Amino acid sequence: MKSLKNKTALVTGGAGFIGSHLSQGLLDMGARVIVLDDLSTGKKENMKDFLKNPKLFFIRGDANNLNTLKNIFASYKIDYVFHYAAKVGVVRTYEDPLGVLRDLEGFRPILELSKKNKIKKAIFSSSSEVYGNPLELPSKEDGALNPKIPYAAAKLVGEHYFRFYFHKLGLPATALRFFNVYGPRQESSSYGFVTGIFIRQALEGKPLTVYGNGTQTRDFVFIKDNVRAAIATLFAPKTDGEVINLGSGKPSTILNLAKKIAKVSEDPKVKIKFVPRPEHDFILYRHPHVSKMKQLLGFLPEYSLEDGLRMTYDWYKQNYGKRN
Ligand SMILES: NC(=O)c1ccc[n+]([C@@H]2O[C@H](COP(=O)([O-])OP(=O)(O)OC[C@H]3O[C@@H](n4cnc5c(N)ncnc54)[C@H](O)[C@@H]3O)[C@@H](O)[C@H]2O)c1
In angstroms, rounded to a whole number, what is the distance separating the alpha carbons of residues 66 and 171? Predict the structure, then answer.
């Protein structure tokens, strides 16, 4: 296994679901990790397994703020930047579109400082939302985009910034277009994501509410695979200046997801209920083309949907009630 000993990584959004797992992964590889998070949706509790690690430095602050970032770059010799802080969640972006667009302000400062300080690699967490209601399936990185919501617009601008800083200014930088990531610690409130919501419903003895007839598709990647791919990107210079889909390439219908969650719950009382699709559930299909991911990263997810869901379910079961 490659080592990150004597390397320092800045993870913005590191107290969030994905960022906390990534931070743990980086620490496990020997890196020193600086987490910058405003705790807007993230939680210190997400970092409880490694908060006391002497190589972990937590800074509460705004990743879009130039002075905050300047102070961090002045205090630590940073080798890698993972820019994961963002106002997340489709429902949230409906409620506060302008708040989402504030994330546009963070790209230039973090990239300028990364370039000035000659970091080795910057990675950006983009999203399959840039495909909106996809115009082609499977969706290819250089194919047609159809962003529909401010969150998607912010992600698209971020991708362009990261590409531009490599192609024009020589900063090694990559944007990863995450499809649906799921796993322990993911938000399961009504602002959350389908997997967490279904699991919470199962644990509360409520039916799993499938929108419409459940034939919508999404592409699910277990958090451990997502982290492995992001870290692999550090060691893959071919990814510099690229935008890469990060998915399984094997989408699942939402009904199939609900059935699998009912199965892993091993609770025969868990039922599925079909409900009308709310306004924000207008994306029918997602299906990433994953050949670029395989070629440039040599990456393939290891966890099957069922195995990942079982681990996620078990985690929620143990932690249920202690958080939302
Ligand atoms: N979860 C997914 O399926 C998915 C899919 C595509 C893209 N992404 C992207 O991955 C990243 C992580 O998402 P997540 O699912 O872990 O969500 P999350 O809400 O758990 O993590 C986001 C973190 O960023 C922090 N944050 C938000 N704005 C900030 C700011 N201005 N300054 C400092 N910290 C700030 C939040 O407190 C939170 O800890 C995000 O950029 C998200 O857009 C996630």
Answer: 19
What's the burial of 286, exposed, middle or buried (CB within 10 Å: 0-12/13-18/19+)? Answer: buried
Residue to mutate (ligand 1; options 39, 44, 84; most atoms within 8 A of CB): 84
β 217-218/252-253 pair status:
antiparallel
pTM to 2 decimal places: 0.97
Report yes or no: 111 and 161 within 8 Å, Cβ to Cβ: yes
At 263, the amino acid letter reads K
Are residues 151 and 219 in contact, defined by beta-carbon separation less than 8 angstroms?
A: no
**Any atom of ligand 1 within 6 Å of the Cβ of 121:** no
Q: What does DSSP assign to residue 277? A: P
* SS3 state at 108: helix
Summarize pLDDT for 201-223 with one digit per residue, the tens.
999 999 999 999 999 999 999 99
At residue 139, what is the residue type? S
Domains of the chain as residue ranges with CATH: 8-181+221-247+288-302 (3.40.50.720)
